[in-house]
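Second attempt. The first submission of Phospholipase D family protein had a stray character pasted in from the spreadsheet, which I only caught after the job came back as garbage. Lesson logged: always re-copy from the clean sequence file. Corrected sequence (512 aa) follows.
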Amino acid sequence: MGKRWLASIALCVVLAGCAQSVVREHHSALALDDARQTWLGGQAQQALAEQTDPDGFGLLANGQEAFGVRAGLIKQAQRELDIQTYLLGEGQTTNLVFSRLLTAAEEGVRVRLLVDDMGAVGQGERLAALASHPGIYVRVYNPVSVGRGHLVTRVLASVANPAQQHRRMHNKLWIADNSVAIVGGRNLGDEYFDANDSRNFADLDLVAIGEVVPTLSQSFDLYWNHGLAQPIERYHQVSANAWQALQAELNAWLDDNADSAYFSELRQQSYNTPPWEELHWGEGLALWDAPGKLTQSGAPDWKDTLLGDLTANTHLKERLILISAYFVPTERGVARLTALADQGVEVEIITNSLESTDAAVVHGAYAPWRKTLLEHGVTLYELRPEQEANGSTDDNEMRVPGASASALHIKAISFDDQLFVGSFNVDPRSVLWNTEVGVLVSSDTLMEAFDTLVDVGRDPAISYRVVLDDNNILNWELEHRGEPQVLTEEPGSTWQHFNAWLSHTLRLERWL
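This time the job returned cleanly.
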């Protein structure tokens, strides 16, 4: 009797699991011919018809503008919205996105949202409610079935398979009607769009139209249809029409916050025009890691990664500029960078200072290499956390935003006259463990726009310039209230210094 009772319970669990595991129909991206029938597709084709280059690009450096473009794409899309993100934060920007996704779905737009499972911790119920709408599909990448309510329990649940679970889908990609795409460093969360009162990230997106967009759609489909992408309904059960309660909750929240400064400024942006004004014309190459990279038993050969593809498709003779929020060059990378500098290539790096970084352990793996890099002529800049005004009030200017605390989150690399913008950091995690996506662009005017951004990053009111003094000791040059200053000790709290020291002492470099 006891065994039959246990068997009955087991059968119920299996049947319940099957009920939760119903996979809704897979969808491929719109073909470009179909996309032309949409408003966005028509606008893109009209702009492209006047050019000889296959693609058009724009840089989104201002956080609020970057969010406004995303919100506009949700409103402008007529057929399909595909969104891929590593992190899904809570806050006013996410609330507005969820509300508009529900509105778009009600108007017949098919929505696919793909989130890394670690980045969706604590939001399972809300995501499942979103997915209860018949036009919205939500999947989590590389999931576990337990410990989903809190980051601590989610990490503990990963102990059963740490070799796979420390690897994450780090991709960031938005595609509307297979006609307009956004790639770059921004996740979905207030701090990525200048909407956080205490801390914001200086970040960068690339908006694209043209032949590169269907290729990016292909990358989304590969991830969406991979076995690691699982429907959120498998892990969180909600009522069939839970989306209605979620929509009511979001509408009430938005009504209560309609007069906030952020939303008031956002309403001034027009949604009756395409998400671009002046595009830079050229040719783009979409690059991404294979979705199955996370399932490999060991570290892949770097030639089989996005970095390998990037290296194979770039040329470098004169200038290399790396802007990376998390810069961990490793011994092999330092050897390559110093060799380039010794050969006469101008090598410049912009990253976070110890003060500004949100990951002091990463800084601890970068800091010991600074002296070697500087001795070979590499130029180093480190973003300051509290930035002083640079005299500009133009919200459309590409600039590093000032806030009570700022951290760099840009991921961009220029190789002579080619520019790569995406989710890829210059660190072992992006090379070996995570999956990434980005676009490599050849465009003279886009490079000029990027150089303008780099000039801002060099501003001593925004960044430290790290140099060696006459005694070969590190100094940090800056400007404070218009006056040049030199710091002889690295700024940062005791706790930050301790974490950086611990990271270096434990030799965590390979895993960062």
